[in-house]
Amino acid sequence: MKVSPETAESGVENLPFSDLQQQLQVVKQQLSGLSQEKEQWLQREQDLYRYIRLKTNNMLEVIGTLPLAAEELDDDRLLSIDPIGIVTDSFHQVLDNLKQTNAELSLAKEEIQAIFNASGAGIMVVDAALRLRAYNNRGKDLFFPSVEEVVGVNFRELVCHRRQSTGECLFDKVLQDGDVAEESDFTIDDRFYHVVATPIHDLAGQIAYIILIYTDITQLKRQETALKEAELRLRAILNGTPAAITLIDPTTHRIVFANQTLADMIGGQLQEIEGHICHKFICPREEGQCPITDLGETIDKSERRLVRLDGTILPIIKTVTKIELEGQILLLESFVDISALKDEQQRRKESEERYRTLYSTMREGVAQFKMLYSADGVPSSYEFVDVNPAFEKIFSVAARQVVGRSAEDIFAVVDAVPFGLECFTRVVREQVSSEFEYEFSELNKTLRISAAPTSSGCFSALFEDITQRKKDEARIAHMAYFDALTDLPNRLLLKDRLNQMLTRAQRNNKQLALFFLDLDHFKRVNDTFGHDVGDQLLKIVADRLKNALRHCDSVCRLGGDEFVVLSDMISCQNDAVKLAEKIHATLKDPLVLRNKEIFVTTSIGIAMYPADGDDPDTLIKNADAAMYQSKDGGRDEFRFYSSNANAQALERLLLANDLRKALDHEEFYLVYQPQIDLDKGQIIGVEALLRWNHPVLGHLSPAQFIPLAEETGLILPIGRWVLLTACRQIRELQQLSGVRLRLAVNLSAKQFRDVGLVSSIRELLADIGLETDLLELEITESTLMDNIDNATRTLHSLREMGLTLAIDDFGTGYSSLSYLHHFPLQRLKVDKTFVRRLSTHPEDSAITEAIIVMAHTMGIKVVAEGIENKQELEFLVSKNCDEAQGFYFSRPLTMSQLTEKIKDNESVQAFCFFAAGDQP
Ligand SMILES: Nc1nc2c(ncn2[C@@H]2O[C@H](COP(=O)(O)O[C@H]3[C@@H](O)[C@H](n4cnc5c(=O)[nH]c(N)nc54)O[C@@H]3COP(=O)(O)O)[C@@H](O)[C@H]2O)c(=O)[nH]1
């Protein structure tokens, strides 16, 4: 508060004390106010000094000089000196400095611009608004060579349209990310640039400028491309090479590179190999050590193994080289698959082994020779190079004795020329194979020599010992014309000789006789004594005929027991008769074989030239027909050919034809002849007998067609039919009458030998339901004696099945009683020829009695067949014969007759005696 002085003077004299005090109080207050005001002014003064000092210092600082120091310039002096002057002085000083600096700066700027322009890279400075602020010459040439002033022009319009590469402009990226950006595929006019865009920030951290530097990297790019192409080419070459190639880092043992061939060899993809440890495939060592780096091996064309991905092993040839690539040591490994080579080697080894084995074990001798030449170049001899063991054996020499020696030292020399030289010379000269036969008389051997050229001037020869073959060939040639058993001319030679004789006979107008001989009952000899004895008999017959006949007569064997005698010393039929009688006489004496006397007779058929034929076939055929007539006439006879004989042969042929059809035409039927138990006087069985109701010839006995059926093989189907029909009919009779009759069925020799016999009978009985013990098979003794072992086996099989077995026609053959115990027989049938002669031939009754006794001692029952009268029956009963069969009891009956008889009689026994009385 401001106090006016007028107010203060007038108030003090006139005012009361209290007023004075009041006044004083006011003054005090005013004083206090003044004091405060003074304080404030002082404060202001201080503030002013501070302000002046601060501003001066600020200005000095702006100018760049040192601030005023308080200790050297107090406040009073501050007011006395001229701060403005100080500042002005300083400012001048600064300006001077600035000028100096500016001058230096513009020099530097020029230097920088020069450097800027000198740069090989194009440099652009763009502000944040994308205006071009600066550029160097290279930049101008690059983007706007023809434009003069471009500073301030929009950079996007200026540069980006020139850009061939796709993608955003680099400065956009810088603006967006605020950071340095680069690109390497910036292309202009097919040139490549590497671009670096760097942002320049202002104090506020905002992008003020972007500096773009364009470096031409076209050359680099091209080099890179060329490098890539070169690498691709190299890869293609490496992949195409048949050798596997790989690069391995020896420190890590990893496969750095592998070509396709390696992948193929390993059996995988490249990515399954590259980057993997090499031990896995390439150095299959369990311990995983690298042979090069760890074991210090040198691998140069060394044979190694490669492990394929499937675990199989591939043999390889491997080479490893250490190479340096970009400062890194690598192992360059290359290897070749040698499995084919190995296989080939193995094959060759095996082939060689085979060849060696063959060479040393073959039966043919092999020798390797080298041709030797005379001084004038003519082959003069040959030298042994090697021989095999067979050669040593054939020539009885050791290899060491011949190797290195010349031919004349070992082989015979004929007319100063070593053996075979001519042939061998041709082999070597013409390089052809050749062969010839040679008889080494000193060795007593005939050899076939096959020579073939080998290496130059050499040849090998194979020596095959054909001595035996030669003999065989001669023997075979002989066999072609001579009978192997008797050594008599065979049918072929017979025809040849007959032709010659016929020619002679025609020429000389002479007669000729052909005698066709067939031994009687020769089959029995075979059946009884076996074929050995049969063969001996044939030989003796042949010898006897040869010896008995004249030299000019020919004896031939046609086969089996058939012989032919040819004689052209015949002038009439009587001569032929004499010769026939001579033949009979020759054979009359018994032969002794196996200490047994055997009587041989022969039936002879005679055909004469020209009366009975004028060619070999006709004469043989007609003599054969005459021979059949002789057989039919009772054997041991001779017959001249007549047209009738031919008719009979034809008849046989026709009958055989009819026989073939008889089964289909159901022309066969069976009759049954009862068999009587002599002890009980009771019928105990029947024998089934076959009949043929021939459409023209009427009822035929088996004796007329069974031999024919045997010959033609028809006996098998016919025999099967007999068995089936007989079993079925007897079973039906059994069901009808309730009578259990034993059924005897005849088995022919062929049937008995049929391998399916046992099983077919088993099936047949099962089918029909006939008890096995009711079937009895009758087999002739000659059938059994044919092959005793087989017969024994078959009989046992049949017996095991439950069948009973009877030996038929006993006594007619040559059978030895001692054989009987081999066979499981239940019955023995004494042949009817013995029964017939019981009363007239005492020896036959003695034989019959002996047979009965012998059979009984062996537990075999005896059946006498062909009993026609009471005497015969009584004799047999008195000799304890067990069973009998014959017209005396009953002729063979048809099944209906048999059924009727059984039905008509109360018992089988009654029927039996009724029948016997009925048919004496
Ligand atoms: N393989 C086969 N052979 C058979 C078959 N059927 C018969 N035969 C055999 O044929 C031969 C002739 O037989 P067959 O003409 O039937 O003569 C038999 C009887 O009829 C005859 N016989 C009987 N009793 C008398 C008699 O008192 N007097 C007399 N003169 N003949 C009589 O005997 C023949 C029976 O002989 P066997 O068989 O030896 O008991 C003959 O060999 C038959 O075996 C057949 O199916 N298959």
From TrEMBL:
GO terms for biological process: cellular response to nitric oxide. Residues 176-229 form the PAC domain. One of its GO terms (molecular function) is cyclic-guanylate-specific phosphodiesterase activity. InterPro entries: Biofilm_reg_signaling, EAL_dom, EAL_sf, GGDEF_dom, Nucleotide_cyclase, PAS, PAS-assoc_C, PAS-like_dom_sf. PROSITE patterns: EAL (PS50883), GGDEF (PS50887), PAC (PS50113), PAS (PS50112). It catalyses: 3',3'-c-di-GMP + H2O = 5'-phosphoguanylyl(3'->5')guanosine + H(+). Residues 510-643 form the GGDEF domain. The keyword Coiled coil applies. Keywords: Coiled coil. It comes from the Bacteria. The keyword tRNA processing does not apply. Transmembrane segments: none annotated. Residues 17-44, 91-118 form a coiled coil. Residues 652-906 form the EAL domain. Residues 230-275 form the PAS domain. This is EAL domain-containing protein. It comes from Pelovirga terrestris. The lineage of its organism: Bacteria, Pseudomonadati, Thermodesulfobacteriota, Desulfuromonadia, Geobacterales.
